[in-house]
Amino acid sequence: MLGKDYRVQEAIGFGGMAVVYMVEHQTLLKQFAAKVLSKELAANREARARFTQEAHAASQLDHENIVNISDFGVTSDQRPFFVMELLRGQTLDQRIAAGPLAIEEIVAISVPVGRALAYAHAEGIVHRDVKPENIFLVQRSQGRFGIKVVDFGIAKTPINQRLTAMGQTLGSPMFMSPEACRGEEVDHRADIYSFGILLYLMFCGRLPFEDPSLLKVLQMQVQNPLPPPRLVNPALSPELAAVIEQALAKDADVRYLSMDALLKDFESALPSGADQMLIDVQVGASPAFRTTPFPGSQRISQPLVTARASQSSLAPPMPAPPAKSPIRLIAILAVLFGVCGVAFAVYKLLSAEPHATQAAATPAPPPPAPAPAPQTPPVVAAAPIEDTAPAKTSVQLVVDTAPQGATVKLDGKKLGITPISLSVTRADTGKLVVTKSGYESVTAELKLSDDARVSYELEREESRKGSVAKRPGKTAKPPSTGSATPPKGDPNLEIKLSR
């Protein structure tokens, strides 16, 4: 038993911090999920405080896309537990592992998650651990599903700031914002960055920054430029790619100011019909898992508003008119055409003989003088479209390097840092220069009469010189015992580790 009301039926989930059981309320005879702090962490004060904060943060948020917390208690051996709604389905990471997602499915998942985060931010709560494992696809009938955001264990709340220092070291590096990776103070824009990683993963089928070393992933989140989404998925529209890139800006001030602003741009960038599954999720949903209508879209919200108004009316609903049979319509049309045809034939027979008699009795009048020919524009043969189209003034240039992060210049003008994809002025040739500190520069002549895509493997300077020159004034120190070994990469990178 958990407390006096909940009988444990079976364990349904295990984590590093807690165990989740399916329990049944003895009075209501209803099943719930109960999360219990593990025995190994029962005496850990920080773990108990974090566990309590998860229950407190989630219980404050009354939203259809956030897991509902209904009870809190302590076991007989003094371990805290809280009771929440029982979710049946799968997590987003399990769905992603099963195969690619269609754009309709991505919209049906990402919009409710964004709306849940926007609601939490409005309440002063930052989730700080947005990742596929914490997004649950609730199974419904007829292949539909609802969305629930779970695990507010390291959430930042306006009431309890005591766990902020501990929370900064927690989270998944693959989804953490650059400021969180640096151990700095974070706000709601850290969730916007993590949400951008989710969009990148669902649309591109891979994470933007991956490495077996989590320390290297932290470094990449801070320093490495974002691989352009359209280089990974060329089918992605420029408008959707722009939304993802702004959400994943390294500088928090350049990102979206709010989750609502992100969702507004996301909606505007969607192709027609991409929100169809979101509508299907809404139709017939139970109140407990209802997904709100798509924001700002008349083609979706208007029918839903009409449906609600008709259901709340006191007058009984009028029966729908019976559908007309297509065979009956075809028969009616055939009869109408037949009647018109007979009438036209009778008219021709009656009018033909008088006209002929009149023509024989009356001499034909002299032919009128020919009227001057109307001034019509000369007929010009249609030319092929490609001949009349304006000349192409720009071409698409894609440059990538191994390693990335090199500076690219074209005819002396800086284009950016690799990998880059941009439009440049069309020309016969152009001088391309690629430079990166510690590597040999590359100079090449490119034909820019059409789109070009090039990739270069940069060579280290010391590989040609045969030796590594030491920087003046700096002496390499051997790592102290027990210190973390920095990942291989930029020798100028300095990583500070703190408890």
Task: List strands and helices in order, with pairings.
Layout: E1 6-14, E2 18-25, E3 31-37, H1 45-60, E4 69-74, E5 80-84, E6 89-91, H2 92-98, H3 103-122, E7 135-139, E8 145-149, H4 164-167, H5 178-181, H6 188-204, H7 214-223, H8 229-232, H9 238-247, H10 259-269, H11 276-282, H12 298-312, H13 326-361, H14 385-388, E9 394-402, E10 407-410, E11 413-417, E12 420-425, E13 429-435, E14 442-447, E15 452-457, H15 461-465
Parallel strand pairs: 9-15
Antiparallel strand pairs: 1-2, 2-3, 3-5, 4-5, 6-7, 7-8, 9-12, 10-11, 10-13, 13-14
Helix pairs in contact: 3-6, 3-10, 3-11, 6-9, 9-10
Explain the overall architecture.
The protein has 15 helices and 15 strands. It is of the alpha+beta class and 499 residues long. The protein has a 5-stranded antiparallel sheet with strand order 1-2-3-5-4, covered by helices on one side. Strands 11-10-13-14 form a 4-stranded antiparallel sheet, with no helix packed on it. A hairpin with a 2-residue loop joins strand 10 (407-410) and strand 11 (413-417). Helix 3 runs antiparallel to helix 10 (259-269).
Indicate the low-confidence ranges by residue numbers.
161-169, 282-325, 353-363, 376-389, 466-489
In what range is the share of β-strand residues? 15-25%
Total strands: the figure is 15
Average pLDDT metric: 75
Structural class: alpha+beta
| Largest sheet: spatial strand order | 1-2-3-5-4
Which shape, going by the Cα principal axes? flat
> What is the number of helical segments per DSSP (H or I, 4+ residues)?
15
